[in-house]
Each structure stands twice: as structure tokens, then as C-alpha cells.
Design brief:
Number of strands: 7
Region (Disordered): 184-205
Biased composition (Basic and acidic residues): 186-205
Shape: globular
Pfam families: Acetyltransf_1
CATH superfamily of the domain at 62-198: Gcn5-related N-acetyltransferase (GNAT)
Mean pLDDT: 90
CATH class of the domain at 62-198: Alpha Beta
InterPro entries: Acyl_CoA_acyltransferase, GNAT_dom
Oligomer: single chain
Largest sheet: 7 strands, mixed
Radius of gyration: 17 Å
CATH architecture of the domain at 62-198: 3-Layer(aba) Sandwich
Domain N-acetyltransferase: 3-163
């Protein structure tokens, strides 16, 4: 079994959309336009490819964007810098093989050189203790709760401190920026949506 975690490509979007909308009640459904928004704006959007098949994906965004999610906005109102995991989906055929942890390790590697916090939410309605345990054992702690809209589910808002970030900030970001190596690069996005604030190596306050 050959596994690759790579940036999403435009021709992957139909498969990603189908995978998202087959995931069940704990993942909000998307339409093609919403998925296109992530393709054009998400800072982290990677897929797991196994033997040529899309086995899962993870989407994350940094602070300061225009994403309309109430959970993303909750973190934006309270924290100056963070990477927010909007969703992770693993295809049924590939669950219970550790892909979730592989994705979270990869997302952490991306986040820890860019922000002090990795954030996300988990649904409490319906409650899934396996999901709560997964996040707890990965170092996330609850920092709040809210209801998603008047009739939406209650969610637990989670954050994980990234202890490597202060070193990276002081050693690289406040000096000459991140080294020019492939694993630190930003994902390619359509050129008309390039955001120069996001470029790896830029000095940040």
C-alpha cells in the first residue's frame, strides 16, 4: 500500500466533494462552490492518496481570513494567531488505519512554524467519545463551547499549544524568514488569490 500526503489538485475536487458528503452527520455537507472556496483560500488543503485513490483529506486555515464559519470566527475573536482545522475526512475503507493521526502530525508540522496554536472543534451532539479521546490524547484542550446557530449542534472548541513556535518565531520569522525548503513552502493556489501575507518567510509581528 503506497501512501502519499500531498497538496490537493484541482482534478481531485470531485472526489473530495463526494468523500465529504458521504461522511455522515459529524461533517457538514458542502456544495461545489463552498469546496472551491477552500481550494482557493485554504492555507492547508492536503489529501491522502493510497494506490491512486483519494483516501481522505484535511482542510485548515490561518487567522485573518474571511471564512464565515462561526467556529473559525470564535477563535478569531480570542486569539491573534492560530491554524484552524476546519474538517478532516477519512474514507470508510481506510478508517482505523491511523490516517487521522498521520494527517494531524502533518498539519502540526505545517502549523508549528506559523502559529502558536492549532485549533478545531468537535461535535458534542451527537457525542462521539472516540473523537473526543483522539483529540485529548493528541494534546488538545477545551477552551470553550458554543452552539452553531440557533438550532445547530453544540460543539467543543479545542486548542493545542505548539511549543516549537516561539523558537521558530525568534530564530527565523523575526529575522530572515523561514528557510527556502520544500516542506516549509505554502501550497500553490490560483494566482489571483495569492495573499502576500501568507508567504513562507515573511516577517510577522
Amino acid at each position: 500500500m503506497a501512501l502519499a500526503i500531498r497538496d490537493v489538485r484541482e482534478h481531485d475536487l470531485d472526489a473530495v466533494l463526494a468523500l465529504n458528503n458521504a461522511a455522515g452527520r459529524t461533517i457538514l455537507a458542502l456544495d461545489a462552490g463552498q469546496l472551491r472556496y477552500f481550494y482557493e483560500h485554504a492555507d492547508y488543503f492536503r489529501v491522502a492518496e493510497i494506490d491512486g485513490h483519494i483516501a481522505g483529506f484535511l482542510i485548515a486555515l490561518r487567522e485573518g481570513g474571511g471564512y464565515a464559519s462561526t467556529n473559525y470566527q470564535w477563535f478569531g475573536e480570542r486569539y491573534a494567531q492560530f491554524v484552524y482545522i476546519d474538517r478532516i475526512v477519512i474514507a470508510n475503507a481506510y478508517r482505523r488505519h491511523g490516517l487521522g493521526r498521520i494527517f494531524y502530525c502533518d498539519a502540526t508540522s505545517y502549523a508549528e512554524v506559523r502559529a502558536p496554536l492549532l485549533t478545531c472543534e468537535v461535535f458534542l451532539e451527537p457525542r462521539d467519545d472516540k473523537v473526543l479521546l483522539f483529540h485529548g490524547t493528541y494534546g488538545f484542550q477545551e477552551v470553550g463551547q458554543q452552539r452553531m446557530g440557533e438550532e445547530g449542534p453544540q460543539v467543543s472548541l479545542l486548542a493545542k499549544e505548539l511549543p516549537s513556535y516561539p523558537y521558530v518565531r525568534e530564530t527565523y520569522l523575526e529575522r530572515d524568514g523561514l528557510p527556502d525548503v520544500s516542506w516549509l513552502a505554502e501550497r500553490p493556489r490560483p494566482t489571483h488569490n495569492n495573499d502576500k501575507r501568507r508567504l513562507a518567510g515573511e516577517r510577522r509581528p
